[in-house]
Amino acid sequence: MVNPGKHGAGEQTTSSDKKIRVLVAKPGLDGHDRGAKVVARALRDAGMEVIYTGLRQTPEMIAEAALQEDVDVVGLSILSGAHMALAPRIMELLKANGQTRVRVFIGGIVPDEDIPRLMELGISGVYGPGASTEDIVKDIRNSISEK
Amino acid sequence: MTLIDSVLNGDRLALARLLTQIENDTPDGRAALDSLFPRTGKAHLIGVTGAPGTGKSSLVNQLALHFRTQNKRVAIVAVDPSSPFTGGAVLGDRVRMKDLSGDDGVFIRSMASRGSLGGLAQATAGMAQVFDAAGYDVVMIETVGAGQSEVDIARLAHTTLVVEAPGLGDDIQAIKAGILEIADILVVNKADRPGVENTEKALKSMLEMAHPTQRVYLHHGVPSPLRPSPVGRGGGGEGNMWIPPIIKTIATEGNGIAELAGQIAKHAEHLRVSGDWAVRERARLESEMETALQERLMSQFRERVPQTRYDEVMRQVFERSLSPGEAVKLLTNGRAK
């Protein structure tokens, strides 16, 4: 609808308030997806469109899905400790595909000393146990409005 | 190079970005649809619908793998529901389609229904057109988990699969009466589950009660101006009509997929030879044009009638001194009667 919002109420344009699209993916081999699902649900409740890919994704699969879905944000759930191997690879692939504007967030078990290195790679945020979903939602919104 | 040129050159990122423009109904997206239109009409659009949990995504995954063995380029549009309260959505169809990753001949796009109620989103048809123009041979459209009235897919697709599974109970007939009518092919998935014979039997008896003549020729409420020719029967049955075949599959293992793909090909051939392909295309384009016309007239009306005038007439409707019908006449003709 190209409804400019004139005459009558209740109709909304989809173009002016573009939906935030988020890919939630779990790279690596650990099988715990509770956290990823909780975050997916929270983002949904915040009005975002979340593409959920499920367990055991390779960096290649994640980059491909991010491309096909033209997402604004990629959320990675990593509990295996392999974040320093997986995150650089995923950033590299996103870049190679031309998706330089995509914001990447990581949730899971990440030691504090790794966080600065992840931020250097261009990761927009890292969330450990106990992080509030409100903060995640807020940070995603802010990162989008900056770009 | 424009976005459209990049898409036509096979740039996948450009394609993804154009799909976003279409989904958000931007002026650029609309212009792109206009200029791509002459290139459309080649792809076979296959709709996949059915109740939640019947295995639509797994089936789409297997069918795509099968089409890839025939070297066809496959696009998948998977629609999941948006929350009516927050507008958010969790789109989970890709979870069942992992087998397809790493293949350049496949493009999967998830979309949220964004308030549409017919089982598709408003922009689904536009996305299918873009894939068609971009040279995909097969476009599979998976609807939201559908019950009775989500039959928009039949208007969009050339071939509609309705997916059923055993164990959904005896109420199958009551629940499925609406959706059964749109099936070109009925799939009983999860055929290794107990109760599969009952499901098949129930579907068979439904088909026997239905009148294929009417069902086919009033498919979109538009009687066919073309005569059918006696070919391409699926499943079996009398006369020249397409009788929807019932195919049993186990999508997780790939059982029955080759047979299903065979019936899909047969149905496409039936549509072409009988002239029903043209009938469906015409009906679809007509409804598309009508929607565009309505939007155009609406926006012309909005340009012509000032907001204050509209509000004034609206106030009279609130006061019950004008009926909504009279109000419209007043706004368009200047006279209420």
Topology:
The complex is a heterodimer of chains A (147) and B (337).
Chain A: E1 21-25, H1 34-45, E2 49-52, H2 59-69, E3 73-78, H3 83-96, E4 103-108, H4 115-120, E5 125-127, H5 133-146
Parallel strand pairs in A: 1-2, 1-3, 3-4, 4-5
Chain B: H1 3-8, H2 12-23, H3 27-36, E1 44-50, H4 56-69, E2 74-80, E3 89-91, E4 106-112, H5 124-133, E5 138-142, H6 152-156, E6 159-164, H7 172-180, E7 185-188, H8 196-209, H9 212-217, E8 246-248, H10 257-274, H11 276-304, H12 307-318, H13 324-333
Parallel strand pairs in B: 1-5, 1-6, 2-4, 2-5, 6-7, 7-8
Main attributes?
heterodimer, A: 147 residues, alpha/beta, Rossmann fold, five-stranded parallel sheet, 5 strands, globular, disordered N terminus, B: 337 residues, 2 domains, 13 helices, 8 strands
Protein architecture, described:
The complex is a heterodimer of chains A (147) and B (337). Chain A has 5 helices and 5 strands; from the N terminus they run βαβαβαβαβα. A 5-stranded parallel β-sheet of chain A has the order 2-1-3-4-5, with helices on both faces. Helix content of chain A is 39%, strand content 16%. Chain A has helices at residues 34-45, 59-69, 83-96, 115-120, 133-146; strands at 21-25, 49-52, 73-78, 103-108, 125-127. The longest helix of chain A is centred in the middle third of the chain and has 14 residues, at 83-96. Chain A is α/β, with parallel strands linked by helices and 147 residues long. Mean pLDDT of chain A is 88; it is low at 1-6 and 8-16. Chain A starts with 20 loop residues before the first strand and ends with a helix. In chain A, α2 packs across α3. Chain A has a single domain, classed as Cobalamin-binding domain (Rossmann fold). Chain B is α/β, with parallel strands linked by helices and 337 residues long. The termini of chain B are far apart. Chain B has 2 domains: 40-277, Rossmann fold (3-Layer(aba) Sandwich); 292-333, no CATH class. Chain B has a 7-stranded parallel β-sheet with strand order 4-2-5-1-6-7-8, sandwiched between helices. In chain B, α7 (172-180) links the parallel β6 (159-164) and β7 (185-188). Chain B is built from 13 helices and 8 strands. Chain B is globular and about 65 Å long.
